[in-house]
């Protein structure tokens, strides 16, 4: 199935304070996961689902993101002169992935505000939002399924994943009703980072959304919430409460492999997991991991 949706918004304006001092001068989205920056995995996932018009929301000192998706003719020429076609292809790949645009967020007012900055680019069409620190394994289907659900139900769709109840306060949490489709649910309520013990379920929002354009109108009137920021979850909660406005909100429950690169420990785990499964690194890395673990 080919989705009529082609636009995706990737918010990348955060300061990356959990990775200081590494992110003092380097955008957190450019931190390497094995040998590619995290944001390239996200763009590759978007392209694989047919989303080839990419808008990245950036902040100050994020020019490295634009440089990565632009051509580096000097480097390409040097590699070409050396006859290093393999590395030349790797360098050129990022600039050929998609039509990548950039817009500044300006004031750091939260995820909802960052998404709102995409209004002029997106226009009056459904679009996807992908967070750059949530990596979904390329072998598992999520975004394509979400696009199919959006097209079938003409509603906004969020990705949900079961989390340990002790971690629920770190996420937006959904109340849901089952539908007649496996792992597709109707969202009946949303709460951003509930106080421990008050969460309505263990289904957390992870960083994939397919939204109807009405969300922009809601975001324009959404008051700052948790942390004094405009929360996308709060705007989605309004769509849940007013299903006649834009068809309500549905969720796709994801049961595959997800790598959280926004947390230092999970970032390290992601690198180890992905590297250990690669044909060029895994055969040497896996025995070393086993030997290292046995020595602890």
UniProtKB/TrEMBL annotation:
GO biological process, one term: UDP-alpha-D-glucose metabolic process
EC number: 2.7.7.9
Enzymatic reactions: alpha-D-glucose 1-phosphate + UTP + H(+) = UDP-alpha-D-glucose + diphosphate
Keyword annotations from UniProtKB, A to Z: Nucleotidyltransferase, Transferase
Family, as annotated: Belongs to the UDPGP type 2 family.
Entry annotated with the keyword Protein biosynthesis: no
Molecular function (Gene Ontology), one example: UTP:glucose-1-phosphate uridylyltransferase activity
Domain Nucleotidyl transferase positions: 7-272
Alphabetical list of NCBIfam families matching this protein: galU
Protein name: UTP--glucose-1-phosphate uridylyltransferase
